[in-house]
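Review this today:
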Amino acid sequence: MTWGVRGVSLRYGAVQALTGIHLELPPGEVRVVVGGDGAGKTTLLGIVAGALSPEAGEVSRPVAARIGYLPASSGIYPDLSVAENLAFAQAAYGVRGPAVAERSRLLLARAGLLGIEKRLGGELSGGMRQKLGVIRAMLHQPDLLILDEPTTGVDPLSRRDLWWLIAHAAAEGSAVLVATTYVDEAERATELLLLDRGHAAARGAPDAVIAAMPGTLMAGDDPPSASEAAFSWRRGRQWRLWAPEGAVEVANGWRAIPPDLQDAVTVALLRSEREAAQGGAA
């Protein structure tokens, strides 16, 4: 069965946190919600998990016992050991026995945590805590696995291990929803949803989001002029310029280039800001 949300909206006082969001979560696939701070990612994940109720729209999710959820923190108990954290999760989800013990051992080994089962959660590095948190959330092979920014602030090797765990959960049949601020992680998803101030700025498979980018993307070595600044940004040692209506004659040696996902996401956010400004002016 496919889980997800259809047309969900939620307001916090004067702040519209989400507006008409659609997101399908089929089994065996990874969906990534990407956006900056305040975009609405945590709110959306809370609605999918059942921790929040939307003001409008529909939500489809499995029963609570079949959901695995990792909050923005690692969700582990610092005064419990690695083994005790996993034992607590087993008791909470009602799963025990040799098969679960073997599954714990396998996941710990793949995440580089085997052999430290007696270490307290509070003594683990940030990357170790996040990996243990993901293992706890997926220990019972949930129908729906929800991870709120599991890779934020962790080292590259830990990010690699975390994405192995995420891919493993999907391969076992879980519908996986991951929130992140890292655009490169969205490339790992079957589909992505880009949120900007509670609105969907882009959605679809990464290749489709790139193909749907309007206008023309250009690159140059020199800084943009004042008239170009609103649609330009720095990318490594070069500058990018988005021409919404297509290629334009500009100075500074701009040249048209094909966009990648990071460019397409940046353009989607610029377009969202432009539309918001035009709406406000109207």
About this structure: The radius of gyration is 21 Å. Residues 72 and 183 are 18 Å apart (CA to CA).
